[in-house]
Specification:
Elements (H helix, E strand, L loop, with lengths): L1 E5 L3 H9 L3 E2 L5 E5 L2 E9 L8
Antiparallel strand pairs: 1-4, 2-4, 3-4
Length: 52
């Protein structure tokens, strides 16, 4: 299972960590949402590669 969380969204990152997710070493994903550019970090739980 993976999550994509906006880089600046500390509360969501905290919830992800509490649920056992870790950030991956994947490049950030840039997306446009309602006219705003956001950067998303990929988080995984299970058999992904954690960020070093």
């Amino acid at each position: 299972m993976i999550l994509r969380i906006e880089v600046e969204n500390a509360p969501s990152a905290a919830v992800a960590r509490t649920a056992g997710f870790v950030p991956t070493a994947d490049d950030l994903a840039a997306r446009e949402v309602k006219g705003w550019r956001v950067l998303l970090r990929t988080w995984c739980r299970g058999n992904g590669e954690p960020e070093s």
